[in-house]
Amino acid sequence: MTTHAGETRSRIMQAGIHIALAAGAVFMLLPFWLMLRTSFTAPDQIFSGNVLTLTHFSLDNYARVFAEVPLLRYYLNGFVVVGTIFLGQVVICVPAAYALSRLRFAGRELGLWIVLAAMMVPYHATAIPIYVLLSQFGLINTHGALILPFIGSAFSVFLLRQFFLSIPQSVFESARLDGASPYRILIHIVFPMARPAIITFGILSFVSHWNDYFWPSFVLRNDFAATVPFGIVRFLDQELGADYGPQMAAATLTVLPLLIGFLIAQRQLIAGIAMSSGQVD
């Protein structure tokens, strides 16, 4: 009887946990469904009927967005910015993380503390000094103003360092015994083995900078280098007002690349996060 009662309590607890998780999932996904539902509903039908169901499917909102917004230019600018930032972070952050994790040199611990301290400072706090510096170099309202402040990432250095610490030390010692230089170890061993971690911080970097509105609104004055969030917000403010259908269509088109990217790389993302929390050797 005791065993049966224990199994019953366990099943009740499991059912309660699943119900709570399902309720949380519905609560988190409901805004996305409302966004999609509004974007595919004709403007005069948005507030009619049940707001949880899609009764009048229409692409009018998307047609208006593509007709009135230079969306392809915003997409191109966005991909150029986030792609260049990612490449710059790979070139800078991977060697820095490798040095802080596996090389022995004076000042290594100080360098690690500087990285940790940099992670605690929000980039909003340094926005004005960086703006002044970019202005002195004539980079305001250019792609360079969106890229240069972010090609060095303290978080990426720390994430990659944790991953490199999970690689057995014997791998690096064997390479040194074979006569490999630090540069050769970095190129032929570290980069291939770090692929999951690089993909992980690449996805995080892509999401962060693709969605960023604060910095573009700080350094851009027109649509020449506008990314998707900045360009669409300008469009919403100037053209749409409270026209919710095109607003939600524009919002859907903003998050679409993020969703596609996550679905493609979700296995590598999970693997990279798991490996970055592995054993420290």
Automatic annotation (TrEMBL):
<feature type="transmembrane region" description="Helical">
    <location>
        <begin position="110"/>
        <end position="134"/>
    </location>
</feature>
<dbReference type="GO" id="GO:0055085">
    <property type="term" value="P:transmembrane transport"/>
</dbReference>
<dbReference type="InterPro" id="IPR035906">
    <property type="entry name" value="MetI-like_sf"/>
</dbReference>
<comment type="similarity">
    <text>Belongs to the binding-protein-dependent transport system permease family.</text>
</comment>
<keyword id="KW-0812">Transmembrane</keyword>
<feature type="transmembrane region" description="Helical">
    <location>
        <begin position="12"/>
        <end position="34"/>
    </location>
</feature>
<dbReference type="GO" id="GO:0005886">
    <property type="term" value="C:plasma membrane"/>
</dbReference>
<protein>
    <submittedName>
        <fullName>Carbohydrate ABC transporter membrane protein 2 (CUT1 family)</fullName>
    </submittedName>
</protein>
<dbReference type="InterPro" id="IPR000515">
    <property type="entry name" value="MetI-like"/>
</dbReference>
<feature type="transmembrane region" description="Helical">
    <location>
        <begin position="74"/>
        <end position="98"/>
    </location>
</feature>
<feature type="transmembrane region" description="Helical">
    <location>
        <begin position="146"/>
        <end position="164"/>
    </location>
</feature>
<keyword id="KW-1003">Cell membrane</keyword>
<keyword id="KW-0813">Transport</keyword>
<feature type="transmembrane region" description="Helical">
    <location>
        <begin position="244"/>
        <end position="265"/>
    </location>
</feature>
<dbReference type="Pfam" id="PF00528">
    <property type="entry name" value="BPD_transp_1"/>
</dbReference>
<keyword id="KW-0472">Membrane</keyword>
<feature type="transmembrane region" description="Helical">
    <location>
        <begin position="185"/>
        <end position="207"/>
    </location>
</feature>
<keyword id="KW-1133">Transmembrane helix</keyword>
